[in-house]
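Sequence only, no structure available. Ideas?
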Amino acid sequence: MKNFFTKFSRRTWIIIGVVAAILIVAIIMVNRNGNTQVAFQTAPAERGSLVATVGATGSVRAKQSAVLIWETTGIVDKVNVSVGDKVSHEELLASLDKTSLNQSVILAEADLASAQKALDDLLNSDTARAQAMRNLDTTEETYKKAYDYRLGLNGKIDIVDTYLDRGVPRVRYTRGYADAETIADADEKLALAEAQLNDARRSYERVKNGADPVDVSAAEARVAAAQSTLDMAHITAPFNGTVTQAEPSVGDEVSTGTMAFRIDDLSHLLVDVQVSEVDINTVAIDQDAALTFDAILGRAEPYHGKVVKVSQAGDTLQGVVSFTVTVELTDADELVKPGMTAAVNIVINEQKDVVLIPNRAVRLVNTERVVYMLVNDQPKLIKLQLGSSDGTNSVLLSGDIKEGDPIILNPPSTNGGPFGG
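Reply:
I predicted one. Tokens follow.
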């Protein structure tokens, strides 16, 4: 070993020592700079806008949706629409062959004609009013005679008695009073005449300005019943919408309950989402919302919507209470379809021109929120109060921080030290 060291001169050893020292210093400096960068990664406090949202997912549904079924048996005769067609209220979509219908449906056509004629006569004929007036005149006359007769029984009356005097007829007049039986009989006739008069008056009142509303309602009900039975052979649109499902084809044999069409009002699309009880009191009608769909590719901007309904009663599922919030899309296009899953972010608060603090920089020290600001290459603890948050940044309410100050994003943690939390 001694021989090995003696092979090098003193000058050589000095050069080796200097080089080694330089290398050690360089390594120390590199490590020191690297550690500083890792330990004190910073970002400036920025001024900007913060949008606080509540997020949830839900499925798209139409504001109005209807599944239309056949209400009788028969063979499909006509189909007037297909999937994607826009239809209007009461538009005829399909019908059955008349010869294949149930007998009750076929007879309904005759019943409808008869009921409509009866209703037309009732509304346009003056016979009922004229008959009621004549009946009223008759009953008034009958009542007057019964009244006058009964009134005469209250005083003395002449009783006429015919007898023969020596073969010559003579009339004897006496005065007296009516007996109880005669009075009772007159009372009964007067009561009957009064009741008939009241009936006649009511009948006339009902028709003096036109047909009796009760009779009209009954006639209209008969027309509606016949029409309803006849309509069983047809499928019509219940509202303005789009055909989203169409099952029948000409010649198909259908039965009661067989599905025919599905109609959806695609001009008004809604998404129902479940919001937790923690956030529900921040949600209100008319708040804006942004909606995105995994099924719709290539769209850079989200769709927009507004809150149109907020449930006032919560539902509990597996111990978690949530409330249903309904959002209506305001710019939906043909790519958005009922049944699609939407990610919905409801804007509950928007603040502009505020100083924003990165949430990752905030620590909790002695129950107080703090951040660390880099001052002269050293971390300085700053106490602060924060407002609304969007999950990434929070609004600075108070604290010795101004726009542009370097905030340490990842201050080093020490057990029990000031950087803990």
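Confidence is low (pLDDT under 50) at residues 34-38, 156-163, 171-175, 414-421.
Hope that gets you unstuck.
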